[in-house]
Amino acid sequence: MNQHRTVPPIATLLVALAFAPDALAHLQRSDAAGFLSGFLHPISGFDHVLAMVAVGLWGAQLGAPALWVLPVAFPLVMAIGGFLGFVGVHLPGVEIGIAASAVLLGAAVLFAWRPPLATAALLVGALAIFHGHAHSTELPNGEDALLYSMGFVIATGCLHALGIAIGTVRRWRWGNRLLRALGLGIAAGGAFFMWQAVA
Amino acid sequence: MKNAGRWMMIVAVAPSVAEAHLTSSGLGPFYDGLLHLMTSPEDLAAAIALALLCGLRGADHGRRAFFVVPLAWLLGSLGGLVALTPQGNDIVSASWLLLLGALIAFDAKLPLAATTALGALLGLMHGYSNGSGMNLTLAVVLALIGLATAVATMTVLPAAAGVRFGGGSTRIALRVAGSWIAASGLLLLGWSIRSP
Fold first, then answer.
1. Sign (positive or negative) of CA dihedral B119, B121, B127, B129
2. What region, left, alpha or beta, does residue B83 occupy, with left being phi > 0 and alpha being psi -120 to 50 degrees?
3. CA-CA distance, A140 to B51, in Å (whole number)?
4. Which of A76, A85, A147 is nearest residue B183 as measured by Cβ atoms?
5. Angle at B157 between CA B154 and CA B161, to 5 degrees
6. How far is B130 from chain A (nearest CA, A)?
7. For B25-44, what is each residue's pLDDT tens digit?
8. B42 touches chain A (CB under 8 A)
9. Is the pTM of this model over 0.95?
10. Helices and strands (H and E) in chain A: how many
11. Measured between alpha carbons, how far is A61 from A114 in angstroms, rounded to an integer?
12. Which residues, at least 6 apart from B20, have a Cβ–Cβ distance to it below 8 Å?
């Protein structure tokens, strides 16, 4: 009479699982990680960093309006490259294009090249496509897409701003020489990445 | 007793349905609505983008947006509450960011009627998306009023900043910010198309 029949633990678990309704809430916890992950992505590759800083340096050398047209053109066209990557458009020689961007932009800073604004914007835009395409094919799943994208774009803008800030030294004679030396360093770095890409 | 413990465990393990959207602030439904905008980057970025666009265009655009956007947002969300159709998706949010960001970046000279129409459409669409994820209760209506209040705040502050500081180098900085918004929208669009 005092015998108690107990529910087996496995039955408890099965009942719990069977009655578990869908959880519909958004994932809130990954938001900050998504932004940070996107922010760190452009600055984690030195070849990207070289080219993006070079855009700022060149803009500073050219002065207004290139000073802000180039940093506007780069992320916009980079996003077009990213879009093409997302929708599956194949772009050949992406790594070579990224290395070439550092070589060409570094050379532009080294020789203080002053083309018409449209030419400079077209060059920067054409090179930005490779960077955007490369990033889109490396993006991790499971992140908040918008925050990741914002972090990614803001980091790119910050690298341009860093180049512009460094470029303010051009008001001094030694500053101009320093800028050209940095251009040489960027072009040399680009050549190294080019060698790695084709090897 | 042993059985009672097992059944308590079943209740504890079985998750209750989590309400999409509303994150609890612990201060009541009105503040839950306020908090919602701050924890929804797609909505927040779109509201700020529209406000910046209006700020660049002038004080009358900003004043109009201050009234139109939150009201449209509230109407849209109330419409979403009673409608049982699917809510908005990332492609819509991405398209808004791309459009508004591009208009800011190119400093588009839009007339007052155009910014008003954009504000109304943005409010209705995003509000509808917000409301369609919720159940019709008094607490949710209070939350939607809180949400509209947050939208009003996040519309008037960037618009006022744009009007007050939107000349010279600050205008250029705002246009650069617009290009970042457009680029983020374009990337989100690609991302959404890749994984709908």
1. negative
2. beta
3. 32
4. A76
5. 140
6. 13
7. 667 788 888 888 888 888 89
8. yes
9. no
10. 8, 0
11. 9
12. A24, A25, A26, B133, B134
Question: Is residue A141 within 8 Å of residue A89, measured between CB atoms?
Answer: no
- What dihedral angle (degrees, nearest 10) is formed by the CA atoms of B108, B114, B117, B121? -30
Work out the minimum CA distance from A150 to partner chain B, whole angstroms.
5
In contact, A39 and B47? CB cutoff 8 Å: no
- Residue in A with minimal Cα distance to B105: A72
Residues B47 and B66: their CA atoms lie apart, in Å, by: 11
Spell out the residues 6+ positions from residue A20 whose beta carbon is closer than 8 angstroms to its own: B13, B14, B15
B194:A19 CB<8 A: no
Decide: A155 and A49 in contact? Cβ < 8 Å: no
Distance in angstroms (rounded) separating the CA atoms of residues A143 and B31: 27
How far are the Cα atoms of A26, A45, B101, B135 from residue A19, in angstroms, in the given order? Answer: 21, 48, 46, 22
The answer to whether ipTM exceeds 0.85 is: no
What's at B107, amino acid-wise?
D
Number of C-beta neighbours around residue B196 at 10 A: 8
What residues in B contact A150, CB-CB < 8 Å?
41, 45, 180, 184
Task: Determine the Cα angle at A138 with ends A132 and A141, to 5°.
Answer: 120
Closest CB from A12, A24, A85 relative to B20: A24
Report d(CA A183, CA A178) in Å as an integer.
9
**Closest Cβ–Cβ partner in A16, A144, A153 for B183:** A153
Q: CB distance from B5 to chain A under 8 Å?
A: no
Q: In 10 A of CB A100, how many CB atoms?
A: 20
CB A54 within 8 A of CB B49: no
Taking the CA atoms of residue A162, residue A35, residue A121 and residue A190 in that order, the dihedral angle to the nearest 10 degrees is: 60
Q: Do B179 and B74 meet the contact criterion of CB atoms below 8 Å apart?
A: no
pLDDT digits (tens, 9 = 90+) for B47-87: 999 999 999 998 999 999 999 999 999 999 888 888 766 65
